[in-house]
Amino acid sequence: MLKFTGQGAAHTCSGVTRRDFLQVGTLGAMGLSLPQYLEAKDQGLVDKKNDNRSAIMIFNLGAPSQLDTFDMKPDAPAEIRGPFKPIHTASPEIDISEILPLHAKVADKFSLVRSCYHTAAAVHDAGWQMMQTGRIFTGGINTPHIGSVVDYLRGRKTDLPANVVLPETMGRGGGNLPNGQAGGFLGKAHDPFALMADPSKPDFKVPDLLPPKEIGTARLERRKKIREVVDNTIDYFESTEDAKLLNGNFHSAYRLMTSKQAREAFDLAKEPKKVRERYGMNRFGQCCLLARRLVESGVRFVTINTFLTVFNEITWDIHGSKPFTSIEGMKNIVAPMYDQGYSALIEDLYDRGMLDETLVCNVAEFGRTPKVNPAGGRDHWPQCFTCYFAGGGVQGGRVVGSSDPIGGVPADRPVSPGDLAATVYHSLGFDLHTILPGPSGRPFPIVDVGKHEIRELF
Fold first, then answer.
1. Does residue 54 fall inside a structural domain?
2. Pairing of strands 385-390, 110-116
3. Which phi and psi angles does 453 have, rounded to 5°?
4. What is the pLDDT of residue 52?
5. Would you call 86 exposed, middle or buried from its count of C-beta atoms within 10 A (0-12, 13-18, 19+)?
């Protein structure tokens, strides 16, 4: 692998770190696929009308309890309905839990799908795969993340990557399975650009936008600013013979590292304090704000992981016993942070006139058991759960599908992960018959035959 670190120096290396200034083997992670995009356009597989739409996928890692959030059963027995009461919202069709009062205020802008289900094992990473790709991984075939498919077919619009995950990719889920947040059979070139930093920290910086130690130390000793180092380095590089050996994709990726546009898009310090506080000065809230900034700057697909793992932090995974939390703990720890960040994102996108062109989809790996367990929590339940959508052509204030009286299985309009993926692709303007180059060059449809967008949302 070649590594370029300034002054035109190129050498082979075996160690690979994310702080390397540029590595030829990782260029495609920046979303450099204009040829594929143009070809898809020529074939009529891209709806030009929706060409500029973007998507933000909020992945509720750990899996919220449908019965305690968006699909309450107030007339069910106490061990089913849980401790919370439903409240009215800005939509006459939607009642939700009292623990999400800010969601209630923007319920006219999102629509619920209460009849989601999947047939994979009730383990986190199996659900992560299905809900972010539309398929379970079988036969050694790792289906790409939806954002990776968007990256492959459309490429990036600006200096910024087409596909970004915040704040970083998911950690372990307990099943030791791939988590579905990668380029899969499209290759690592289409893995998302992962932030790998907490935007709520006072010293927040994006590691991959910083210069390497080889350059920084030498220049800092001479009391020069980092920006001067970067500018001088790229000027020198572009004058060398090495640059002439590289194609336009290389130059695009190299410029990302020194792009003023990229630096400014990731710079939350440019936001007024009042705006940052509106989202919540926590990791999830600031990721929501950063997602808005990235979409505003041309990023096509942003995935926000509400949490990173179910093992080292309190999440939606409310089993009740330690190290997990209970239903009550969800009310006090998880819900307020989530409620504030999501509602601020929707309001901000709407106020800026961006919501129509930005799909915001909230998904999770499964739901929770209808019956409260002895520890005061609920366990894994893929048989029925709720997902919801806003913007991107979705009509707000609606409810699609319903569950049975205990929230255990869909009562009507069952919706699979493939249908959810098809809904995202449809919003972004893709023909659902689009074919990808699968393993061994075999044609691979972006969604399985028989999977369709949730038409009632549009």
1. yes
2. antiparallel
3. -65, 155
4. 87
5. middle
Measured distance CA(229)–CA(237) in Å, rounded: 12
Q: Is residue 296 domain-resident?
A: yes
Q: Give residue 164's domain range.
A: 45-202+273-457
Residue type at position 375: A
Structure tokens at 275: 């705006």
Ramachandran area for residue 63 (φ above 0: left; ψ -120 to 50: alpha; else beta) = left
Q: Tell me the CATH number at 91.
A: 3.40.720.10
pLDDT digits (tens, 9 = 90+) for 145-194: 999 999 999 999 999 999 999 999 999 888 889 999 999 999 999 999 99
Q: Which residue, among 402, 397, 411, 416, has the nearest Cα to 454 in the 3D structure?
A: 416
Distance between CA atoms of residues 273 and 4, nearest Å: 38
Going by C-alpha positions, the residue among 216, 139, 190, 162 that lies closest to residue 53 is 162
* Tally of domains in the chain: 1
Give Cβ neighbours of residue 61 (< 8 Å, ≥ 6 apart).
Answer: 124, 128, 170, 305, 306, 307, 308, 309, 310, 315, 316, 364, 365
Query: 184 Cβ partners below 8 Å, 6+ apart?
Result: 133, 141, 142, 143, 144, 145, 148
Residue-wise pLDDT tens digits, 107-159: 999 999 999 999 999 999 999 999 999 999 998 899 999 999 999 999 999 99
Nearest to 458 by CA among 371, 393, 362, 365: 393
CA separation for the pair 73, 402 (Å, rounded): 11
| Residue 244 belongs to a domain | no
Are residues 281 and 200 in contact, defined by beta-carbon separation less than 8 angstroms? yes
Supply the pLDDT for residue 24. 32
- On whether residue 259 sits in a domain, the answer given is no
Q: How far apart are CA 325 and CA 173, in angstroms?
A: 17
